[in-house]
Design goal:
40% helix, 3-stranded mixed β-sheet, 3-stranded antiparallel β-sheet, single chain, 5 helices, alpha+beta
Length: 134
């Protein structure tokens, strides 16, 4: 277990107040905007340690950049993310779990792991953009 430094506490405090995924650079900028003296390398190290501990979820943006968000659930889960505002809903998906296990089994694999993230437009953004809402 890593010790809770002032910098790591600042990163944790910021993440606890966010509902959407943000890049390490965005988190760093937000911390600097709050007057926190935290280096970008420290933000990356903190996020990696929190990810390794299962405290932070990570998704990959279309450009491959890692995006971070504090986990609401410690159990395995998936995400539904608004591609416009970043609003995120954590999902459990038994059918996804069964499908992943079956695909592995069908091809002779065991101990199959997976990541499933769904992207769409949330109802408020759809209304704002004038498109259909679900």
């Amino acid at each position: 277990m890593q010790r809770m430094t002032r910098q790591r506490a600042a990163v944790t405090g910021l993440l606890e107040g966010m509902d959407d995924f943000r890049s390490a650079q965005q988190i760093h900028e937000m911390l600097r905007g709050r007057g926190e003296n935290v280096g970008l390398a420290t933000v990356y190290r903190s996020l990696q340690a929190m990810t390794d501990a299962g405290d932070v979820d990570v998704l990959r943006a279309d450009d491959g950049e890692a995006l971070y968000r504090m986990c609401l659930s410690r159990k395995h889960h998936h995400h539904l993310v608004c591609r416009h505002c970043g609003t995120t809903v954590e999902l459990s998906g038994e059918s996804v779990e069964q499908w992943a296990a079956q695909m592995g089994s069908d091809h002779g694999f065991v101990d199959v792991e997976h990541t499933v993230d769904l992207f769409g437009t949330c109802a408020p953004c759809a209304a704002r953009l004038g498109g259909p809402s679900a």
